[in-house]
Amino acid sequence: MKYLDEFRDRELAERLLHEIRQTVTRPWTIMEVCGGQTHSIIRNGIHQLLPAEVEMVHGPGCPVCVTPLEVIDRALAIAATPNVIFCSFGDMLRVPGSERDLFQVKSAGGDVRVVYSPLDALQIALKNPDKQIVFFGIGFETTAPANGMAVHQAKVKNIRNFSMLVSHVLVPPAIEAVLQSPGNRVQSFLAAGHVCSVMGYWQYPEIVDKFKVPIVVTGFEPLDILEGIRRVVLQLERGEARVENAYARMVSHDGNRPAQDLLAEVFEVCDRSWRGIGCIPQSGWRLSEKYRDFDAEVRFDVGSIHSNESTLCRSGDVLRGALKPHECPAFGKECTPRHPLGATMVSSEGACAAYYNYGGIIPAESLTHA
Amino acid sequence: MCLAVPGRVEEIVEKSGILMGKVNFGGIVKDVCLAYVPEIAIGDYTIVHVGFALTRIDEESALKTLEAFSKMGLLEEEFGASEEAAS
Amino acid sequence: MPDFSNWSCPLPLRDFPNVVMGHGGGGRLSSELIENIFVPAFSNATLTQLADSSVLDRPTGRIAMSTDSFVVRPLFFPGGCIGDLAVNGTVNDLAMSGARPLYLSAGFILEEGLPLSHLAQIVDSMAKAANAAGVTIVTGDTKVVERGHGDGCYINTSGVGIVPDGLSVAPSLVRPGDKIIVSGSIGDHGMAILSLREGLTFETTIRSDCAALHTLVESALAAAASNAIRAMRDPTRGGLAATLHEIAGASDVGIEIDESSLPVRGEVRSACELLGLDPLFVANEGKMIAFVAPEHADAVLAAMRRHPLGAEAVIIGRAVEEHPRSLVAKTAIGALRVVAPPLGEQLPRIC
Ligand code: SF4
Questions:
Q1: Which chain A positions have a beta carbon within 8 Å of C332's beta carbon?
Q2: Contact check, Cβ <8 Å, C348/A90
């Protein structure tokens, strides 16, 4: 595909790797914020090719992983309600709640459907006027314009049998939370390219000034990620801390204004708890007062459901970069993709699952003969 | 997060008040909401996430980036090669 | 899409355009269904006798037997329907043990309300597939379930074939060093089905690769010295990754593949990008893999390529002694990754 394949070129990847090797002189710790980048790094084996000095720490950037247990339990309760069609992105179906997941609700008779886009859920609402259609609106700033548009359309077109269970999270407060966490080792960030396509990168200079860490807006293909790493390492080696955009084909400084306008209309900032991490102030979006009628938590009165997370699971430490997944005592033992304890073992993007699936079992050294 | 895929806009229509269109992703065609990229024209490339176009791809910048990558390490390579020859 | 324009309803059934409970009741309606739809389509001497069981001749060799049930939704899809899928699926399962497929049974579970025209279409494509594969459908059964208790039509086929004496091909016989050949592009069937799923639909020309592979198997076997082909499988559900894992486990070897050598059609690759799926995990219905002793790999590859169903065959990797029971892929940029066995259904992801 155009604008994908070119950025997977092996020879150019080698050139970039060569540059990184030439530049680096000391150990550095870089966090890729975005789960999509984690996926790409492990899927392509980028971490194996980097010089030993460069350590990549997988950040909290997977909306599936960080959706709080409580919200999952509320989703499960709504999905099990008669006369409800519960629509979700495929990622969420296997995320464990306190007792079960959406797959199990489905097998027990709940009408749970995977959709590609929230607009598909809206279509299902139009086709089934006698049912309540609930969409599980999760995601970062990238997904919010889509979810926001679905709610906006529902309001404009008065589609009363549609509502959304919203658990949106925001990237900049999460970066700050990582930097402020005790024992933080992260020295620089690859910012999530597609989040910035929507939001731009005007929020980041403030963080850079406050914490003196380089932040480089980075894409998802192997060459994009290597270029992000190269620029971060260059700044670190020179003792600089700036915001740079290494994903100029998709990201502008201001981001997407029409999308930001709609977001401001449909959502309002709120405190949000992140699974495994806890509450981060001002780190989420919920539906604004005007759209509260379309809030599934209100419509289905599930606000009273509260849940406690597993005590074994260290996903909070993993998400903060304090622990590598395979260092968790439960990794691969009590906790596997088949029986996940924490959400990071569920989503294919989750740091624990990514380690388990793509690299955790066999240490890189034992593979190098091939 | 946020799997988004580049594709070429093939058709632009207004459907019940929203700007929609057909986008071709390497032979796969999907209906995509273009409401957030009102400036987009047929033939433009855009990046799509869960059925929504997020931005118009700056094709010139894409080419420049690739060009910069392909020039990387060239000087050193020549240098390195001559060093090898000498040893 | 199926074309019903030329289908005419056989007279006595015209009163019932759809399947009704009575069609499975063993009475007159049942007989009419058999006589008007099944027997004419599958016409052969054994079936026409309508006995409780079929008595068949047995050529020399060992007997291979296999059974499979088919529950695809939608029933009709680009490149095929549940009918040819049910025939080819079992033919392929037989062929993968080196058997020449001979006889099939066909069991139908029909949902009340299924249009008889659809049933006729399905039965017709089964008959065509059986003819093409040179197998005879010698016995069958039909039951009807109430509306809402099935997806229109489920089919079970069981098959019997003959394996020549001396031939042994099995997933447990792979040795380190064996080369892995795949007969053509992967992921076509799974993506053709996914393109029609409510909530995911996309426009594409991807067609299911549904096909009977036993003649391709014959060509491959003929090109190799005796037992140089150690194992053959058709990578259906769970895709190539699931099948390679099964073989790695059965033979206690490691497997290494080169991702850039995998044959994946452009559109299938694009659809995978769009939905966040890995073509290694997407189902096939007309592809096979063969593990071949290294010194015979080129000859087998050449023979497969001469067959229309193997024209795009390639070597994708090999069995190794290291990391037994694991599948390792060399990525596009030259690193390695472990490919985990698939866990249930592949779901499109957003992140
Ligand atoms: S391996 Fe499992 S238990 Fe440990 S942190 Fe990851 S998700 Fe939690």
A1: 8, 10, 44, 222
A2: yes
Q: Does domain C11-163 have CATH number 3.30.1330.10?
A: yes
> What are the residues whose beta carbons fall under 8 Å from the beta carbon of A304, sequence distance 6 or more?
none
Q: Residue A93 carries which DSSP code?
A: G
Q: Is the CB of A65 under 6 A from ligand 1?
A: no
Cα–Cα distance for residue pair A184/A321, rounded to 1 Å: 8
Place of tokens 């299911």: C208
Q: Is-same-fold flag (C11-163; C171-338)? A: no
A256 residue type, one letter:
N
CA distances to A118, A144, A165, A251, B38 from A149, rounded to whole Å, are 8, 8, 14, 21, 15
Beta carbons within 10 angstroms of residue B78's beta carbon: 10
Amino acid at C299: A
Q: Is residue A315 in contact with ligand 1, taking CB distance under 6 Å? A: yes
**CB-based contacts of C124, cutoff 8 Å, min separation 6:** C41, C83
Alpha carbon of A279: minimum distance to chain C alpha carbons (Å): 22
Q: Per DSSP, which regions of chain A are E strands? A: 28-34, 54-61, 84-88, 111-114, 132-139, 162-169, 188-192, 215-218, 243-245, 267-274, 278-287
Q: How far is CA A16 from the centre of its chain?
A: 26
Class of domain B4-79: mainly beta
Tokens 């549904």 correspond to what residue? C210
The neighbouring-strand residues paired with B48 are: B5, B53
Residue pair C44/C151 in contact (Cβ under 8 Å)? The answer is no
A132 pLDDT band, cuts 50/70/90, is very high
Count CB-CB contacts under 10 A for residue B81.
10
Q: Is the CB of A318 under 6 A from ligand 1?
A: yes
pTM of the shown model:
0.89
Which parts of chain C fold into alpha helices (H)?
Answer: 28-33, 39-41, 45-48, 82-95, 116-133, 188-194, 214-223, 239-251, 266-275, 297-306
pLDDT score of C92 = 98
* Contact yes or no for C115/C95 (Cβ under 8 A): no
Give the residue on B whose Cα is nearest the Cα of C195: B28
Is the previous residue joined to C74 through a cis bond, with omega within 30 degrees of 0?
yes
The pair of structure tokens assigned to A2 is: 């155009």
CA distance A298 to A292: 8
Of B61, B5, B9, B69, nearest in space to B37 by CA? B9
Residues of chain A neighbouring C270 (CB-CB closer than 8 A): 1
Give residue C6's pLDDT: 54
Per-residue pLDDT at A11 = 93
pLDDT grade for B75, boundaries at 50, 70 and 90: low
Q: Using N-to-C axis directions, what is the helix angle for A144-156 and A118-127, rounded to 10°?
A: 30
Compute the distance between CA of residue C150 and CA of residue C142 in angstroms, rounded to an integer: 14
**Which homologous superfamily is A1-310 in?**
HypD, alpha/beta domain 2 (3.40.50.11740)
Q: What are the start and end residues of each CATH 3.40.50.11740 domain in chain A?
A: 1-310
Q: What is the pLDDT of residues C273-294, one digit of tens each?
A: 999 899 999 999 999 999 999 9
- Identify all chain C residues contacting B2, using CB atoms and an 8 Å cutoff: 350-351
Thinking of the domain C171-338, which architecture would CATH place it in? Alpha-Beta Complex (3.90)
Pairing of strands B28-33, B5-15: unpaired
How far apart are alpha carbons A312 and A303 in whole angstroms?
26
- CA max distance for chain C: 66
The answer to whether residue A365 scores a pLDDT higher than 60 is no
Hey, where are the domains in chain C?
11-163, 171-338
List the beta bridge partners of residue A189.
A31, A215
Q: Token pair of C7, please?
A: 């289908």
- Integer-rounded Cα Rg, in Å, for chain B is 20
DSSP characters for C185-214?
A: -SSHHHHHHHTTSTTT--B----------H
Which residue of chain A comes nearest to C266, CA vs CA? A1
* Complex ipTM value: 0.89
